[in-house]
Amino acid sequence: MDFTFAPEYVALRKMLREFAEEEVRPLAKTIDREHRVPHETLKKGAKIGLLGVPFPTKYGGMGAGETGYCIMMEEIGRVCTSTATNIGAHIGIGAMAIYMDGTEAQKEKYLTPLASGEKIAAFALTEPNAGSDAAGIRTRAVREGDSYFLDGSKIYITNGPIADIVSVLAVTDSSLGARGGVTAFIVETAWEGFKVGTLENKMGIRGSSTSELIFDNLRVPQENILGQIGLGFVTFMKTLDLGRVSLGAACLGGAQAALEAAMQWAKARNQFGTYIAAKQSIQWMVADIACEIEALRSLVYRTAWMVDSHKPFSREAAMCKLYGSEVASRAINKALQIHGALGYSRDHPIERAWRDARIAEIFEGTNEIQRIVIASELFQEIGVRVRP
Amino acid sequence: MDFSLNEEQQMFRDMFRSFAQKEIAKAAEHTDKNEQVPPELLSKAAEQGMLGALVPDTLGGAALDPISYALLMEEIGRACLSTAAVIACHTSLATQAVLDFGSEEQKERWLPALASGDVMGAFAQSEPDAGSDTRTLTTRAQRTDSGYVLNGVKTWVMNAGIAGLFVVVASSTPRANGRGLSVFLVEKDTPGLKLGQRELTLGLRGASVHTVYLDNVHVPEANRLGAEGDGQTIAASVLDHFRLAMAAAGLGLGVAAVEAGVKFAAERVQFGGPIANKQAIQNYIADSSAQVEALRYLVYHTAWEAEHGGHLSSGALYAKLFAAQATRFVTDRMVQVHGGYGYIEDYPIARMYRNARALDLLGGTGEMMRVGIACNLFKSQQLEIAP
Residue B257 in contact with residue B327, Cβ under 8 Å? Predict the structure, then answer.
């Protein structure tokens, strides 16, 4: 056992901390207020290789694996959840689906420009009646010769309005259902028949654009089938598994930042003749946040190690997402409380963090779905089959 | 024991509900987006007597009993917590101060205007370095021949943008360690009173919250509420009324959140049926509903105690503390029932979730409620607890 980070990870974290403080933090308030994607940050990040952190160098990535990717999400998550969400949707699910199940030719053509940040990716699963329940998918892909024609729409797609390349799940055989009947496709948004629909007005992560995507008789060449025909749901679920680890890391960063801000305020704020850090109510909140953060940190980096060591990790990934999002929500909620009325003001970063944090309990599979994933794996070990 | 409402209270509740659902709920989204309770909505509420809820009928008010007033706040809170906060601040802080501590002349001068809504009330106590710790208030009221001159900065003054009358807590006896406070009625147009920056808030966006600057504000002696040095007592008393009013509004918010969750869970189909069939969802809804029902009877009981001359203080602390916890829990769980739909501003649950968060802060934080409760409990052991 060795719980220390190798020197290259320490150096990566140092670089990311500087990038986050200098390039991400100054924009965080504005992009929230104006619902604006931080294009300039993404560009600058791309220039130093941040949009390809986990991918092998042969595709233009940094080759830092899941551990390096988690370090990045933690550091960006410390300062701006919107930016972390943009990057997470791009790398963690959009490009990752192609990395996991793409052919060599697809990786060369699509993963390379994504890893360099020349192109931006999105991941399109959710529909009005289908999220974690893939059986409700209505988007159709009908074969004609060596092409497929896509019709339908997806909702709540992060990066939807800014993506160049989208991994899309569609029904290819309605008689077979979720297992065997749905296929993943790589779609270029420049193609005819693609349209960005309604933009969502969200409570938080307002610097991350979320929209409907519409496919109107959109032709996809058959070489853009991602993975095997009929096994698209498997590709998507594997991708989501991986995304959950780094989502836990982003939550870790958010929680840690809240703890630090709360401690600074507890030291600065005087009431009843002393700084409020002297009050046990405040000490309890700080201690509870810190314990949960340490447990989360261990869970996240141990799971990242499992991914990098090619061990099975889907149960642990669900735990990273579930525990990470709930720890972050609790930590940020307590940190807001320590700030008192000031924390309720939109001039304070903790207010934004509080709104931003809430989505992590919902997206990429609600926490209820994570509990089902965990429980069904556990029950499977004693021969019990659990369904949602 | 009798937990039923009397006939008059039932009639009031139906009337409040009908108005709140018809007028206030309809405007709730607009109120949040435009960060203002529509003035015409306040006028309509005034016509219904809602702005003079506690004022005697001889002075133009509705003279509601405490339970009926709690029912009013519940129904308004159910429709829109921003509107409830604006009215509670006007009624339970400003109006209540004049009602309970004003002289006959002060009552006759101010209560009819407050009751009709011609004048909205605000309450100014907090300062940059003093919130619940009133010993460190630095706003000074210096005696002159004809009255007082006020100097200082007040923060988090709710209703400041719409108020015609500010109830201001200031120190008339410096170095008295918080025991030399007095309360003054300051009209909006008094020279030297200036509104500072509007605070943009996470929720309760319909309430206009400002910093208020008092720069050599001359106040005649006739505008001092109560005796010199009564400030501590007056402020503590009206804050308790405000806490109970906000707890009642929180009850309404909890009711509305559970309703929204139940409706969504019945309609949303996943994995072959309404998600209402899933035990995870049932747990969220059952736990939430239990909290709302417990809050309901805590609020009604505290109002009943007020009506029967008991001490409001501890009850108001319990009600506000529990209301903040229950509504935080309930709105959070109901967001979760909505899934992604709970995170977009098109559904009211996102607004309710943001609004609920204010209840653990305004009128004193949850931590201060606990300190107060503990103080009261330890008193029986002749032990004095300092925060």
Answer: yes
